[in-house]
Amino acid sequence: MPEEQKTEQQNRGNRPPREGGRPQGQAGGGPRGDRGDRGGDRGDRRPGGGERRPEGPPEIDLDKLISDSLYLDNQAHVVVSRMRDMDSGTRSQLRRLYNAVRRATRTAEKERQHEFVMLRARLAYTIARHGLRSLDQLERLLLQVTRKNDARGYERFRDLFEAIVAYNE
To answer: At a CB cut-off of 8 Å and minimum separation 6, what does 29 contact?
Structure first.
């Protein structure tokens, strides 16, 4: 082995050259091969051809949800659309959660916040257990509703969940 190659190999921690002859860490020899410019629209398209959706959905605005029925309806459609794109959640899982929301809404006012806190824990468990990442947005909204601790907020959250169940059928 020529002296130059030995020195280069020692500088790389005695790792053998990568495919294509260039060691990792040198120009163009990164883990993904030669791509030239690494900027641009790399990863902006889905394999099916359409544009990729943003990583996370925007937060649902609780005040707007309470005051605007059309906003509630639109958000329900968005959640269901994301569910169909991202998750393999079943209708029965969604209905079980909805029944828990209804029960929590019907509890006495002084116990309602606690019921919704526990509901959020149940929702977080279901999301993690079944990989329902599309419901992350609902979990964040549930946190807002619980912090506000307003009867109207709880009712609107129930209405939103009811619309999601209905549109998912």
So the answer is: 18, 20, 22, 23
